Amino acid sequence: MTKFRIGACAALAAASPSLAQIILGTAVAGNSAPVQYQLTFPGALAPTTGSGVYGPGAGTPFSYLGLKGDFTATPVQPYNGVYSVNIFAYVPFSVGPLPVQVTQSIGGYFVGKMANGGGNGALPATNWLIKSGIESDTNGTWGDGEPTVIFNNVYSDSLTGNGIKEFSVNGTPQPRSYVLGQGLNYFLYLQFETFITINNPPAGLPPIAVTAEFGGVSSYTGLRTDFDWKVVPTPGTAVLFSGSLLMLARRRRR
Fold it and tell me: Cα separations (Å) of 129 from 35, 108, 156, 159, 211?
């Protein structure tokens, strides 16, 4: 599994350090499909990673993780209980020879649609939540309970009974100051959990199939999370700062 590294080339090109510091890696996507489902994917899960800078010139460096796909969950009869589908994507990364400060909290941009097919006006009751964050990586395995160091506010929504609901969330990142440790490993992740409740169904309830569309064969842009960061200290800043102090000291001695 390839990792991307941030802060890896911080000693290069102090005038524009952000352009030389990110090495892209490969994201992993998957699902934990429970046995009580027939789970189908019209469009394959497709994770993407990337990085860049905001604005002209050096701008502000950022890294992102995206996920597109569609799925249909068909609970196996007889219905009674809560059925869940867990879709996820993650990308491992490591911090280079200098610490990296996350300067804005994890942003979330989620666009898609949920459709309750079949059932009646009350069933199924479908709830979903999408969350993202940065998690420590001490053993190379995501999702095994390791600490989440930065956590995005969870987006949640619901749909009761037969029908369709589109969602479009543009989470505004907030200023943040969390330092990712030099030489440490982390995961950037996205998680999309869906819970389908079919309690006490009446006799003759039509078959149920719940479909989530987030950019597989559908036209929705899907799920994306990102974070802004900077190397601390950038070598150019440190050199200029120390030089300014030296000049100030000389002036005072005169």
Answer: 21, 12, 4, 12, 15
